[in-house]
Amino acid sequence: MNVLNNVCRSFQRHCALVPRTHGYQCYSTTSVNTSRQVLALDGDGVGAEIVGAAKQVIDAVPKITPIEWVTLTGYGYDNDKPGVTQEHLDAFDEHRVLLKGPITIPAGTNRSNITIGLRDDEPRTFTSPNQAMRKLFSLFANVRPAIKFQLPWKTRFDEVDVNMVIIRENTEDLYCGKPEVWVDDDTCEATKRITRGASKRIAEYAVDLAAQRAAVRGGVVTLTAVHKANVCKQTDGLFLEEVRKAVSAANVAGLTYKEALVDSLCADMVLRPEEFDVLVAPNCWGDIVSDLAGGIVGSLGLLGSSNVGNNHALFEASHGSAPDIAGQGVVNPTSMILSGAMLLRHVGEDGAADAVENAIKATLAAGSATKDLGGALSTSAFTEEVIRRL
Length: 390
Prior knowledge:
By secondary structure, the protein is of the alpha/beta class. The chain has helices spanning about 1-10, 45-60, 85-95, 130-135, 195-215, 235-250, 260-270, 285-295, 335-345, 350-365, 380-390; strands spanning about 15-20, 25, 35-40, 70, 95-100, 115, 125, 140-145, 165-170, 180-185, 185-190, 220-225, 255-260, 280, 305-310, 315.
């Protein structure tokens, strides 16, 4: 699974890379946490079940330095929880690596708005705990690999080699956090904010990851910039300008650069998903395209996900909190387990990550899956099958 292999290593412009017996370890250019402590927050709904499954699998991998889990309660909104607290943020700031469950963000209300800051910084208002973490810790890149697995049921793309990774700018665009404004009783306006700095940062990250894929393959890699610059001429135009600069400056051998309007891209992904490789997008378009990629490979539950910055990294499932099935023992934990594999790469355990990914692949290929993927296993039984194949 070369996509997941390269996610950690694509930090090279933003992190130092230190050779180890296991491969490479990505860490902050200012300091590194060598204690192997990782913060774990369960969140809402099925969060405790899938975070628990990922921790079980990681703990079962042989011959690695054990992860020491630092667990805090109270994250999310279920049972009148406050969303996120200062204690949560301070712990993430200290440990720098987080395995995080999904939360149920109240829709259509301001209840999720949070005013909070880091230690001595001036508090700021955010629309959700997710946005607070992304902005406060500059988690600028959301990385979601989409890889075809052999599933118990037939999908449209069983005979197609789908192997793409979506890199989504994570801090601005329509999700920049500026409040929506009612112009009058019948009109509400939202702000789409694109900055040169954020566009440059995500463009360089995407080019780095594409270069790593090209090096592993020893051949061609395609980088596609996703946009709507025919309508959003200035904002998406600025994004494209910075991607073009990054591609030109890097001069990667074997890299083919393309640009695609988000609407036509979505149609092409459904018709010819095997043609797509590395995609980089502003926040909103990346959100849409990454979910579409999940549908193409069979489920959002088959996508790992990381949110990374210069100093911190957050690993979470690609799907939501699914409160309707919480506590029933039927949720598919694959997405969170794959995100756990990405976490292992981030702390330098490439071999362990390989073992987890191969165990997931073998388990699904054997027809062992949860009900949403056409199987009959419970969450715990599926987790045990993965552990058995490590």
